[in-house]
Amino acid sequence: MTTSTRDRVPGTSPTRPRLPGPLALGLVRTRVELLGFVRERDAMIFIFAYPLIMMAIFASVFGGEDQVFDIGAGPVEINFAQYFLPGMVATGVMLSSFQTMAISIAVERDDGTLKRLRATPLPALSYFLGKVGQVLLVSVVQTAALIALASLAFDVPLPDGDRWWTFAWVFALGTASGAVCGVAFSTVPRSGRSASAVVTPVVLVLQFISGVFFPYPSLPDWMQQVAQLFPLKWLAQGMRSVFLPDEFAAVETTGEWQHLLVATVLALWLILGLVIGVRTFRWRRRDDG
């Protein structure tokens, strides 16, 4: 039974419907972000398919040649596709989290989307939950497709046992740190049109110095030192501990997988990205006050 205007007690205001909580709105916002991601077909193809294409190209070119490593006990050969997979998983996570977040937020700020959203009852937390949800779902699907391609097309053995737990926390920390760093970096481009030109070179440089395209031990010492300052190197190292045999830990700089250090560096970048993002995030363009 509904209450009409005539039946309402004089002097009282109509009851306003309660808005859903931030988490519920975040789930709705995740769906909106996914639809927007799918509709941007050029960006979706690059971000989603890039690791798959690079994996197929490199594994096909070098698939017949085993990579030789000297791990102390003598040279050891391993299928190049197996060695290449961890780096591509890591770079896929970075593309789906850091690059997607930095570019999309810069574009939305430039075209006024953020300004309009800020004027609605949508909580800021729900907006960011939607972004993180979209990043997480895309990263999961992309990584699953990459692992399936490596396993089915190039006979890369899958990890077993506790290695999947290692994969889970490395993936979660890498995705989270990449997402919040993307939010923080989104303030660097001066406009939405320049966002890709500013963000993409950063991603490419980090890929080359972090052992994604080339074996990390073969890189110059100074390049390894620079790479250790950024999360992609540690994300790739964590993934190598998942997909490579245990004896390959000897190939790393310290001769160990350094799981504690991997988790620490990724967590520090997560905290640093949160602090910078909170202090520098803007809902309006620079010329809009």
How many separate domains?
Answer: 1
DSSP helix fraction = 55-70%
Helix tally equals 10
Low-pLDDT segments: 1-6
Task: For the largest sheet, list the strands in their spatial order.
Answer: 1-2
Backbone shape: elongated
Main beta-sheet annotation: 2 strands, antiparallel
Distance between the termini: 49 Å
Roughly what is the average pLDDT, rounded to an integer?
86
**Rg to the nearest angstrom?**
23 Å
Order of helices and strands: HHEEHHHHHHHH
Return the structural class.
mainly alpha
Q: Percent of residues in beta strands? A: under 5%
Number of strands: 2
Subcellular location: Cell membrane; Membrane
Protein name: Transport permease protein
Organism: Myceligenerans pegani
Membrane topology: Multi-pass membrane protein
What does this entry look like structurally?
- There is one protein chain.
- By secondary structure, the chain is mainly α.
- It has one domain.
- The protein contains ten helices and two strands, in the order ααββαααααααα.
- A hairpin with a 4-residue loop joins strand 1 and strand 2.
- Helix 2 runs parallel beside helix 5.
- It is elongated, with a radius of gyration of 23 Å.
- The N and C termini lie far apart (49 Å).
- Pfam families: ABC2_membrane.
- This is Transport permease protein.
- Its main location: membrane.
- Belongs to the ABC-2 integral membrane protein family.
